[in-house]
Design brief:
Layout (H helix, E strand, L loop, with lengths): L1 E4 L3 H11 L3 E8 L2 E6 L1 H14 L3 E4 L12 H8 L5
Antiparallel strand pairs: 1-3, 1-4, 2-3
Helix pairs in contact: 1-2
Length: 85
Amino acid sequence: MAAIIGLDEADVEACLADAGGTVVVANYNSPSQLAISGDVDAVKTACELCKARGAKRALLLPVSGAFHSPLMEPAVEEFRAFLPD
């Protein structure tokens, strides 16, 4: 995951589209700060693209998973088995 600061949503989305792999907006923290999540390499590439497009910061976050991304879907299904009906 990474925090993208100082770049609007449309520009971040354009960078994600060009990054390759799986990388999505994970959270809209504010109009000028979005969190992204996905494959490590795709997130790193997206950070570089966002910086090149004018982001004030593109900061990798020290997390243990690609939270709020499609990559978490297997965990969702597994967790669902533990939930009561």
